[in-house]
UniProtKB/TrEMBL annotation:
Pfam families: LigB. It comes from Microtetraspora fusca. InterPro entries: Xdiol_dOase_suB. Coiled coil: none annotated. Residues 12-249 form the Extradiol ring-cleavage dioxygenase class III enzyme subunit B domain. This is Extradiol ring-cleavage dioxygenase class III enzyme subunit B domain-containing protein. It comes from the Bacteria.
Length: 283
């Protein structure tokens, strides 16, 4: 029986990969170090595969095609950012099982065998995966170009992912790549909503995720938290909820950078799973 052995989330800001003038390097280094600590979680849990739930910044897709949820199912996860190329083997058997299982559960998934991935994957591949011999599965969630999926729909997708994994033999680590508050490409770029980040962190540490999951896409967009939709997929996949442990939170001038790890096997305070099943939400 398959299981999720690690549940993690972390920032993927381009500034972590490249040097930019005027950046707060000490804070960026703290974020890098926290991501490296997630890599040590992989060493401890020894998963068979790393599922990375990431986002697209018009590096993979364009206005010609904007899919809501996309699995990459080819031989390798490939791409580049800032002149650095990456190429990691994909766990094709599980990727195909996820594609089939999610469609069977009512999710109209897109898939690609040749997608070129951007910095939302380059960052965790460098700092979390590193040179570890662990195959990956990239999953992209549309978090920028409306219409966006709701938070509860993303949670339901995660629940369905957990159900498919439970029927498989693999031990799976899941990493949500993205977050927290920032406004790329807008006049609000230097004005992240740090106070909202702090509210989210309080809810995560208190194992009180429902108020976050109930936020609508326009509400998330208003506070620069659209990339949290990738975290919502992770939370659904975890099944039983657990308090998150914040490894780092940095208030960089343009970005609230959070790195968090959960124990997906720990039940909530009531000892029950109060999250709706994928079928219930999909219906």
């Amino acid at each position: 029986m398959g299981e999720i052995v690690a549940a993690m989330a972390g920032v993927h800001a381009p500034q972590l990969l490249q040097k930019f003038a005027g950046e707060e390097e000490e804070k960026l280094e703290a974020s890098r170090n926290a991501l490296l600590e997630l890599g040590r979680v992989l060493d401890e849990t020894r998963p068979d595969v790393l599922l990375v739930v990431g986002t697209d910044h018009l590096e993979t897709f364009s206005l010609d095609l904007v899919p809501t949820f996309t699995l990459v199912t080819g031989e390798h996860a490939t791409g580049e950012f800032g002149g650095e190329h990456f190429r990691h083997p994909i766990h094709r058997e599980l990727a195909t099982a996820l594609l089939d299982g999610l469609i069977e559960r009512g999710f109209d998934m897109a898939y690609s065998q040749r997608a070129e991935l951007g910095h939302a994957f380059a960052t965790p591949f460098r700092f979390v995966l590193g040179d570890r011999d662990i195959p990956v599965i990239p999953l992209l969630v549309n978090v920028y170009l409306p219409p966006l999926p709701s938070g509860r729909r993303c949670e339901a997708l995660g629940r369905a992912i957990g159900e498919v994994i439970a029927g498989r033999p693999e031990r799976v680590a899941i990493l949500a790549s993205g977050g927290m508050s920032h406004f790329p490409g807008t006049p609000r770029y230097p004005q992240p909503e740090f106070a909202f980040d702090e509210w989210i962190i309080e809810r995560i540490e208190a194992n009180d995720l429902d108020p976050i999951l109930d936020l609508t896409p326009p509400q998330l967009d208003e506070v620069g938290e659209g990339e949290m939709l990738a975290w919502f997929v992770l939370w659904g996949a975890m099944g039983r909820r657990a308090p998150g442990r914040v490894l780092s939170y940095q208030k960089v001038w343009h970005h609230g950078q959070g790195v968090v790890v959960w124990d997906p096997a720990e039940p909530d305070a009531a000892g029950e799973n109060d999250v709706k099943s994928a079928e219930e939400v999909a219906s």
